[in-house]
UniProtKB/TrEMBL annotation:
Residues annotated as transmembrane: 28-54, 61-85
Superkingdom assignment: Eukaryota
Keywords from the UniProt entry: Membrane, Transmembrane, Transmembrane helix
Stated name of the protein: TSN36 protein
Location in the cell: Membrane
PANTHER family referenced in this protein's UniProt entry, alphabetically: TETRASPANIN (PTHR19282), TETRASPANIN-36 (PTHR19282:SF120)
Membrane topology: Multi-pass membrane protein
Major localization class: membrane
GO CC, alphabetical: plasma membrane
Pfam families reported in the protein's UniProt record: Tetraspanin (PF00335)
Amino acid sequence: AAAGLSYVGAYVINTYKSYDNFLQDKYALLPAVIIICVAVVMFIIGLIGCCATFRESRVGLGLFLAIILVIFIAEVSAFVLGFVYREKVKTDVQDTMHSVFEKYNGKNAESTVVDYLQEQLRCCGVKNYSDWTTTQWFNSTGNNSVPLSCCKQDMKNCTGRLDQPQEL
């Protein structure tokens, strides 16, 4: 389990590099770091449990039980906090995404990240393609279109125009 958690934590950190402009808050990596720390702690606890079982130590097994109970209480607390603050996290991420979309000009680093995100997630805008209508880029292009990264991958002649929403 510790090895699996280590892999997940490392994968999240590696994936973060592609989306770091959207997740401008450096605390976005905190869950991945916590996952890796939990993996290390799980390895140590597992080692204590194995050694206590192997030596048939009542004190060691009691310590192992106490540690497992503390971990269970921490997991329940984390679940409750995640449930309570889910809307705040959602609005914070959406606000950050809207600010990155505002900086879109088709050439800067934020633009590259927006295009990458829309292509990978096969989406357009924060909620839908109409989010682009309030951006500076949309108003400056004057051609009533969204970036080509909004186009469906199987559409070869997509221009990103809003009068053809079936292609977005």
